[in-house]
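Hi everyone, sorry if this is the wrong subforum. Our group has a chain we'd like a structural model of before ordering constructs, and none of us has done structure prediction before. Sequence below.
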Amino acid sequence: MTGLLVKSFSAPEESRPFEQNMGHLDLINSEAGAVGRAVFEPGWHWAEHVKPIAGTDSCQVAHKGYCVSGRMKIVMDDGEEAEIGEGDFMIAAPGHDAWTVGDEPCVMIDWQGMDNYAKR
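Answer:
Right subforum, don't worry. Here is the predicted structure as tokens:
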């Protein structure tokens, strides 16, 4: 790799739609792995809009992300939960469910686990 890499989410290398057009994941790739920008529409719920793609009972992807806008509730399989919003950084281990909160899309940048998230 050279000393500088610049890519734009306005021209992602891949875009993966969620079920029922409830958002999408745009990916850019680097030697360090994929980085995703996900747009979760109001009413999006992992259990309804990604679970059919993943084929698991809960999300088994680890996430390390930053919330650009909107709100999301994350509930771990063990019952631990948090709501995140604009400006929040979060880390979520595998084994969780999530859904948007409110009337605006939740936009997240995620540096971990994006290689296979919502991949058909």
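For your construct planning: The longest strand covers residues 23-30. The mean pLDDT is 96.
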